[in-house]
Amino acid sequence: MIPISDNIRCWNKPIVNYWLIGINIAVFLWELKLEFSNELGYFVNSWGVIPAQISGAITNAIFLNFAAWIVVLWRLFSLIVGIFLHGSFSQILGNLLFLWVFGKTVENILGHKRYLGLYLAAGVVTGVAQILAQPSLTVPLIGANGAIAAVLGAYIIKFPQVKIYSVLPLIILYIPLEVPAFFYVFWWFVQQLFYGIGSLNIPPFGVNQSGVIYWGQVVGLLFGAGFMRFRTFVR
């Protein structure tokens, strides 16, 4: 099932959404360049979210010396950078498709600054949840999955019954459909079973090789839903 668009009119251009999509594409193209020169493994292992490194840096900072917190801050910066890294063609295509369909409407509701805040905060919160869930994991966790799950959660809270124009690909046929928005909460997690297709070569152990990444996205989904609910409540 491929979402195409909704029927909600946006009065303002989703500038932030365009920029987020553009940055993700630009970074992925840079990853392809690094893969060609055999430098991608070093880059991703330096800037991806590696729970063991972050939890280890925090432990050292607490029990050793104050200067060690500089290392902690550098490691925590990977929580932001990791949002814009992707490990496969299927991962970035799936993520950006959902961002394109659902992000523009959420940005129109929240405004540019709040929407950017939601996206980045959700990515960080998801990363923290993954670290807490498996602090000894040595494989990098990368991708905008948690941030986009939050965008989807915010959208569903506001428009659960809105029809999403979709297509169902059947080999050489494409069947047009209108699917309720809440269906894509389920489909979001299903499609990620295929995110290994077109994987980049990231030595030594690849990326995202842990079931904890899916639980992290549940956190992102709930964070986005809570963010939208709180905004509606205080308005």
UniProtKB/TrEMBL annotation:
Keyword terms, alphabetized: Hydrolase, Membrane, Protease, Transmembrane, Transmembrane helix
Membrane topology summary: Multi-pass membrane protein
SUPFAM superfamilies per record: Rhomboid-like
Primary localization: membrane
Entry's transmembrane regions: 15-32, 44-70, 76-103, 115-133, 139-157, 164-190, 212-230
Domain Peptidase S54 rhomboid: start-end pairs: 74-226
Localization per Swiss-Prot or TrEMBL: Membrane
GO CC list: membrane
InterPro entries to which the protein is assigned, alphabetical: Peptidase_S54_rhomboid_dom, Rhomboid-like_sf, Rhomboid_protease_S54
Keyword Oxidoreductase: no
One GO BP annotation of this record: proteolysis
GO MF term (any one): serine-type endopeptidase activity
Alphabetical list of Gene3D superfamilies matching this protein: Rhomboid-like
UniProt entry tagged with the keyword Transmembrane helix: yes
Family named by the database record: Belongs to the peptidase S54 family.
Protein name (database record): Rhomboid family intramembrane serine protease
Source organism per UniProt: Desmonostoc muscorum LEGE 12446
